[in-house]
Amino acid sequence: MKSVKTITDIAKECGVSISTVSRVINHNPHVTEDTKRRVEKVIKKYNYSPNALARGLISKQSMTIGMIVPDISNPYFYTIFNEIEQAAHEANYSVFLCNTLFSASSHAKQNLHNEETYFQMMIDKKVDGVLIAGGQLDLVHLSQSYLNALKHLSQALPLVIIGKPIDGIDCFYLNREDTGGIATALNYLASLGHKNIAFIGGEDGVVITQERIQMYKETLLKLGLPFHSELIELSDYYTPDGYSAAMNLLDKNIPFSAALTANDNVAIGVLRAFADRKIKVPGDISLISCDQFHTADYLTPRLTSIDRHTGLFGKYIIQVLLSIINGITEIPSIKVPYDLVKRESCIPYSK
Fold it and tell me: Would you tell me which of 16, 186, 202, 286 could form a disulfide with 219, CB atoms 3.0–4.6 Å apart?
């Protein structure tokens, strides 16, 4: 078998340019099907396997994507990352992951400048594009130094932000949060006869928390159910926070028959707190999570949750970034659905 060692040989045999072969290798859609078939046939014929460095030299790309998250141990972020890494690998990109630890409240202050440092690191490493999810982006009030660093990053590299648009930062935004899931959860609890419904978890000063609390209030009013601010107990998005928040809520001695938690992590802590106080779920209190993770089916009881299809969202995110990197102006648009998954933790109110 004849040995072909370079992309130039492939291009010459196919009668196309080197850049066309590069586009085929990198799955760029701006190649005709006929050309794609011819190039792929020759690649297969010689069992050609370009390395990342060679591809980068041809395309003037590093074939690397940067991703910045606040806590990779959080099921939400690692679900997104897994989908992004898999899709990136299929497109011959590698992913450079930065884990800032910003979201954990116990680490927030000491890691306040990490994100700004990582922004510059992405520029220095010449990645082809950057994804940012969570961290300081989620805060209601952003520091000026953070905004300056983010603006510098957006001017230097293709950037996709998971969150709401920020004035003065020109990049692509994907706002995933849909508070309709909160309304769905409350309507379900109301249909079971619950009237006094608590909200547990979420962090004060965070945009998502504010939006969910606002929807919680509005939905209770629309349903004609009482709203008690004392039944809102914020903490953070982790299991220990759910435990402490539930304990604080129970110490208030305000009756409630159902509760929404910020996510499944919080729900685990709430379940433990209720068990320690000899409160049965769902016998005494029904429980529902606003954001389903992989644990819901394996808790006792199995947890009723809102499934926001985080994996599907991760696939969409990487499609958007790769499209931008490859100069595609028509970005695909999808609406990621949410579904109420009914399990064992909610029953009709019977008292």
Answer: 186
pLDDT digits (tens, 9 = 90+) for 116-141: 899 999 999 999 999 999 888 888 88
Q: d(Cα 266, Cα 256) in Å, to the nearest integer?
A: 18
Residue with tokens 């293709």: 158
Domains of the chain: 7-59 (1.10.260.40), 64-175 (3.40.50.2300), 180-308 (3.40.50.2300)
pLDDT of 329 higher than 60: yes
Give dist(CA 59, CA 92) in Å, integer: 13
pLDDT higher than threshold 60 for residue 55: no
**Is the distance from CB of 262 to CB of 290 less than 8 angstroms?**
yes
For residue 113, what pLDDT is reported?
58
Question: What pTM does this model have?
Answer: 0.79
Q: How far apart are the first and last CA of the chain?
A: 80
| CA distances from residue 259 to 34, 75, 255 in whole angstroms, order as listed | 58, 21, 11
State the burial class of residue 240 (Cβ atoms within 10 Å of its Cβ: 0-12, 13-18, 19+).
middle
Orientation of helix 239-251 relative to helix 264-276, angle to 10°: 50
Query: Count of H helices and E strands in the chain?
Result: 12, 11
Tell me the two tokens of residue 300. Answer: 């006792």
SS3 of 87, please? helix
Task: Look at residues 199, 213, 145, 185 and name the one whose alpha carbon lies nearest to residue 292.
Answer: 185
Residue identified by tokens 């029953």 is: 347
Quickly list DSSP for 144-208: HHHHHHHHHHHHHS-EEEESS--TT--SEEE----THHHHHHHHHHHHTT--SEEEE---TTBHH
Burial letters 156-179, b for 16+ CB under 10 A, else e: ebbbbbbbeebeebebbebebbbb
pLDDT by residue (tens digit) across 239-253?
999 999 999 999 999
Q: What is the DSSP letter of 139?
A: B
Q: What is the mean pLDDT of residues 176-184?
A: 83
